[in-house]
Write a structure and sequence with these properties.
With about 250 residues, the chain is of the alpha/beta class. It has helices at about 5, 10-15, 15-35, 50-55, 65-80, 115-130, 145-150, 205-215, and strands spanning about 40, 60-65, 85-90, 100-105, 130-140, 155-160, 165-175, 180-190, 190-200, 220-225, 240-245. Helices cover about 30% and strands about 35% of the residues. The strands form two sheets. It has a seven-stranded mixed beta sheet, with helices on both faces. β8 and β9 form a beta hairpin. It is globular.
């Protein structure tokens, strides 16, 4: 079952793209200024990074296994007047007939894969999609910190609007080899409140495991950062884990 079937309709509200644009925009601008011009977003979701990079003058294609996320991405990109190729497929099985300067897996998407074989197949396909010397960027939750701290409830965002309000809260359940994010959304519009709970499972990949997987997939020069300002990764403190490697 596609865990984003219901969540896709609320995903953009949950993510707060304006805040993410401020946080991530300078990072991607640095990549573009270093000469990277063609990008493959391997877990494109609702199309945020496709739009961001296209606005920076890049050529971008997107891939996602969820038909519901691809549908929302197509709608979002059309609304912005952008003509971007989106591919509905599993990254492990993707057949893209070109190579790119940079491949991306953003927003804690790679940990949807379970099992080393599936993870390696995904990363190897990403490696194959790169031009020689191209760069790979993988952004995941720093599960080392998350498991050490044992956070149970994380308020994601709250906003009040003229016609109502919306709030999102993560309730996290920890298991051996699996972490479950229960996403509670409360949306009030025109005096009517709606409640939803979406359940998303992740493979809690350690930073050590990520480095090993990238190396086994053929990547070199692996660097790890704890935020989009490129602060060195602190596995006990950083909330994000961002890996940059090259082919």
């Amino acid at each position: 079952m596609d865990c984003y079937e219901g969540l896709s309709a609320r995903f953009d509200r949950l993510m707060d793209w304006d805040r993410r644009r401020l946080r991530e925009g300078p990072f991607f601008r640095r990549l573009v200024d270093r000469g990277l011009r063609t990008f493959l977003d391997c877990h494109c979701g609702t199309g945020f990074h496709c739009a961001l990079l296209t606005d920076m003058g890049c050529s971008v294609e997107g891939v996602d296994v969820s038909p519901h996320m691809i549908e929302v991405a197509s709608r979002n990109l059309r609304a912005r007047g952008l003509d971007i190729s989106l591919h509905l497929c599993d990254v492990k099985e993707m057949q893209i007939d070109r190579q790119f300067d940079c491949v991306l897996s953003m927003g804690n998407s790679l940990p949807h894969e379970f099992g080393d074989e599936n993870l390696l197949r995904t990363l190897r396909r990403m490696h194959e999609a790169l031009k020689p010397g191209g760069q790979c960027v993988v952004h995941i939750e720093n599960f080392d910190r998350l498991y050490a701290d044992g956070d149970r409830f994380i308020p994601s965002r709250f906003s009040r609007k003229r016609d109502g309000a919306e709030a999102f809260i993560f309730a996290i359940d920890y298991f051996e080899g699996r972490v479950v994010f229960n996403i509670l959304s409360i949306i009030e519009e025109n005096g009517v409140s709606r409640f939803n709970v979406d359940v998303v499972e992740y493979n809690p990949l350690s930073c050590e495991k990520m480095r090993a997987l990238l190396s086994d997939a053929g990547f070199m020069g692996i660097e790890a950062y704890g935020d989009f300002a490129l602060t060195p990764l602190d596995e006990s403190e950083s909330y994000d884990a961002i890996f940059i490697a090259r082919k």
